[in-house]
Amino acid sequence: MWSCLLFIITFYGINCEPETVRDNFDYFSYGNEESILKNLDLHAPKDEIVLRPQEVKDWPQQSLNVGQITAVSINSLGQPVIFHRAERVWDESTFNESNVYQNLDKGPIIEDTILVLDPHTGSVLHSWGAYAFYMPHGLTVDHHDNVWVTDVAKHQVFKFTPSNHKYPSLTIGEAFTAGYPYRRRVLLCMPTSVAVATTGEIFVADGYCNNQILKFNAAGTLLFAIPSFSDTLTLNLPHSVTLLEQLDIVCVADRENMRIVCPKAGLKSYIKMLEPATIIEDPTLGRVFAVASHGDIIYAVNGPTSQNIAIRGFTVNALYGNILDTWEPSTGFSNPHSIAVTKNGSHLYVTEIGPNKIWKFELTDVYDKK
């Protein structure tokens, strides 16, 4: 029975738009933001520790001279690892109506696209990824320092081990072939993000066209899709994923639905996957571009949505689905695209694709605990 349930997949279409900074006036207005915020309880009880991201000034200490920074993750040494597009830009001519990449004649990006940064100074410690990618999007460093990346132009996910950054040890999808995943032939369509469990299971946000989360075993065999064919849940451009293993949920930046969705991940129990997903919705969220997590806390960033919705970060309680805090750097965000939190929960990083920038924040206790 489960084999039937797990492999019958419903797919939804989406009109993919370029990842340039979009006009903020083409989305509906929720009304005056100040009046909305007055009616929201954005604070946790006094006995709950809420760590607020505080901007680390003058970091990085020198300009990185990179393109659009589409992703950031943290390795086991606490070093931020970023994925950037160099001179490559996604615009209206990058893909056709069938989601086929139109700039093959340009070849792969000739510069190193993956940079490992010093967490103290922001300087580049080492780099790799030249002549490998066409349109970088997602990057995740797993618990064993394997690096997982998504290339939306190639419609593929790649796993690189720490000892071999030249040839991937695992590839999901077929190069430059957009399609739907099946048991015997797994095709992806502009995958956006990857999350990897400590047990090896792989969660892929598939992505701009198929609007689903795919779960694979450690060998890359497709197990099932979220939502399933019988699920009433629908996603509209799952742009980022994060795993909260202790809660057995995978949380998704459901971008065009302007919410965070947390269905069961099926790491501990397949039966509980039938339970409804936790849905985090709020008038101030806007288009959620990225999510990261530490413990039971989700950190998220939105992007340009409308005049009345501020671009900023959110701290969310994953257990109860309530916003605990909002935050931003002193000069504000413009177009954030990814977020990552260190393993020890002391710092987080946010990257933008216009301007091409990475921010570092220190997570500090906002309440006096005396």
UniProtKB/TrEMBL annotation:
Domain of life of the source: Eukaryota
PROSITE patterns: NHL
InterPro entries linked: 6-blade_b-propeller_TolB-like, NHL_repeat, PHM/PAL
Gene Ontology terms describing biological process: peptide metabolic process
Family under the similarity heading: Belongs to the peptidyl-alpha-hydroxyglycine alpha-amidating lyase family.
Catalytic activity, reaction form: a [peptide]-C-terminal (2S)-2-hydroxyglycine = a [peptide]-C-terminal amide + glyoxylate
Role: Peptidyl-alpha-hydroxylglycine alpha-amidating lyase that catalyzes an essential reaction in C-terminal alpha-amidation of peptides. Mediates the dismutation of the unstable peptidyl(2-hydroxyglycine) intermediate to glyoxylate and the corresponding desglycine peptide amide. C-terminal amidation of peptides such as neuropeptides is essential for full biological activity.
Molecular-function annotations in GO: metal ion binding; peptidylamidoglycolate lyase activity
Binding, Ca(2+): V72, L139
Cofactor note: Binds one Zn(2+) ion per subunit.
Entry EC no(s): 4.3.2.5
Cofactor: Zn(2+)
Organism: Euphydryas editha (Edith's checkerspot)
Pfam family, one: NHL
NHL repeats (start-end): 122-163, 188-219
Disulphide-bonded residues: C189-C209, C251-C262
Protein name: peptidylamidoglycolate lyase
